[in-house]
Amino acid sequence: MNNNLHDSNHPTTRSAATEQLRSDGMMNSESKRAPGEQARSQRCLLCGGLRHRVVFREFDIDILQCLGCRHVFSSFAGDPHYAEFWGGEVANEVDPYWWKARDRMYQDFLTKFLASRSGRLLDMGCGLGFFVRKVATLGTWEAYGREISPAAVRYAHEKLGLANITCGRLEDVEFAPGSFDVITFWDVIDHILSPDPVLGRCQALLRDGGICFLRTPNVSGQLLRARINKLMKGMQRNIDYMQAHDHFHQYSMNTIRKLLERNGFTRIEFVHLHPCQDLNGMVRGTRNLVFQLVRALAVISGGHLNLDNLFVVAHKGA
Ligand SMILES: [Zn+2]
User: What is the CATH number of the domain that holds 77?
Assistant: First the structure.
């Protein structure tokens, strides 16, 4: 369990190699880098700048902020396509985080964006397929998924019976241009080292008037909580601070907007959905109250003081 506001139940499912590095205290160590692992370019994704400052240190991984455009990113050199998140095989009993804790948030999305309509939806980085299954239950939407992890896709096919999920890099997904009304990214964009080809592909796959929806941690809240945790508790392996070895990019409202606009999206909006539900009933009530306060602050300040996760709606066309 970790105690960050992004997802308090987020399981630490990672590749065996990553876990080994973590347990050995070798993450991103220049002298002890794993065989074949490359030093990551510290050129800013958004402005190309090379000047940055360290804003947080998570064990031995630096979190950097570009001095040119203020984009925040991890210096960790991981798998750029993130194929190993689910490991070699998914257990039969998956962590309820993936279906129970997230269900209310998914339901909120369905109510806001899909109910009383019909169309086609593509979930990018769909993992085990629980959101695709949820959309399919509406009966009025054709739901598809794309996922790079073969283990996760096997689970979706065999355990959830979802035939509409394909395995491969997100940018290589094959559909005719304009095939989709909605494309979703649930906690995926932050894991993608080079997101432009993926977002460019989405732009082409959406029909005019379609939307791309993204949920990603908000660096403003994430960094604040990481610093408070470090100050109060020091560095502990069971706390997720900035998830430095998983989250390559830490977006703000400004930086995610820039990224989406340069990939052809025209109108970028920020909404709020129900948070993931903590599976501990005692904690859940407190967390939900905190989220209500955070949300109220965002609304009252006109979005200037937004510490909630980012729920982004990017439109194609006018
Ligand atoms: Zn920059």
Answer: 3.40.50.150
State in Å: Cα 49 to ligand 1 middle: 5
Bridge-based pairing of strands 72-74 and 249-250 is antiparallel
Q: Does residue 154 lie within any of the structural domains?
A: yes
- Residue 222: band (very low, low, confident or very high) from pLDDT cuts 50, 70, 90: very high
Instruction: Say if 11 falls within a structural domain.
Output: no
Domain that holds residue 148: 16-315
State the total domains in the chain. Answer: 1
- DSSP tag of 217: -
Query: What is the rounded average pLDDT of the residues 213-225?
Result: 94
Which residues sit with Cβ closer than 5 angstroms to ligand 1, an ion? 44, 46-47, 49, 66, 68-69, 71
Average pLDDT of the segment spanning 140-157: 96
Q: Comparing 135 with 244, which gets the higher pLDDT?
A: 135
Least confident piece of the model among 135-139, 146-150, 178-182, 286-290: 286-290
- Facing residues of 55 across strands? none
SS3 of residue 231 by DSSP: helix
| Strand bridging mode 141-147 / 165-167 | parallel
Asked whether residue 157 is domain-assigned, the answer is: yes
| Alpha carbon of 184 to ligand 1 centroid (Å) | 26
What is the CA(215)–ligand 1 centre distance, in A? 22
Cα three-residue angle 249-53-244, rounded to 5 degrees: 35
Q: How confident is the model at residue 30 (pLDDT cuts 50, 70, 90)?
A: very low
